[in-house]
Specification:
Elements: H1 32-61, E1 66-68, E2 71-74, E3 77-80, E4 90-96, H2 109-116, H3 122-125, E5 129-135, H4 139-149, E6 155-157, H5 162-165, E7 172-179, E8 182-190, H6 199-204, E9 235-236, E10 239-240
Parallel strand pairs: 4-5, 5-6
Antiparallel strand pairs: 1-8, 2-3, 4-7, 7-8, 9-10
Amino acid sequence: MTSAGPGSLSRMAITLPLTPLAPTAAPDVVDRATWQRACDELLAREKALTREGDAIAAARRRLPMTKVEGTVEGPDGPLDIADVFEGRSQLIAYFHMWHDGHAPEGQCEGCTFFTAGVQNPEYVHSRDVTLAIMYQGAYPDVAEYAEFVGNRLPFYSARNSQSLLAGRDFGFFASFLRQGDDVYETWWATGRGTEAMSPSYQLLDRTVYGRQETWEDSPAGWPQLFDASQGDQFRTAGKPTIQWARH
């Protein structure tokens, strides 16, 4: 398999081995006035959710923080976690799971999904924030994978960074603050908390058929093609969906 860097993607035809949906179930058809009233009723709930999200974000900004120390491995060998900030004061790091001995197309489909959705870090850079990936694998292996998936973000191996993991398993992301040479962890999340990294999910949640995953509360007859308990939602024909652009 030939790897392709980000610059070659615009020259590639991206073809997924997926049959388009032909669902028979669909919402009721009503006149526009009736439809608008239903949208307005839902909008009130959506606004309440937005305000609650703002309140939670405000509480998150008021959390205490805890000092962390540790090193990770980059292209030139070990470096202190403070150097990962690239001179900025804040860092968001995703701790990417790894399957030793597997080829790039066999790596964690969920972590591939989440990191693929945040490959344009310019906006967080403008807020003095660095976005980086901490891989569980050894650096030479993750370097091959990062090239294969077209990763634009700085990446490191945190395989031996037990002080940063603090007893946690890979598959989470965390926020850090640097003050001089000292680094502090301010917040972290795992599980569905990592969905903040996925604009794809946010978009799908606004379509009529949603994510099409088996756990969703959808009307009878709605397509639910992906078993989230098996990781199907992140794969197409056996490998992470994003990787079909890298033949």
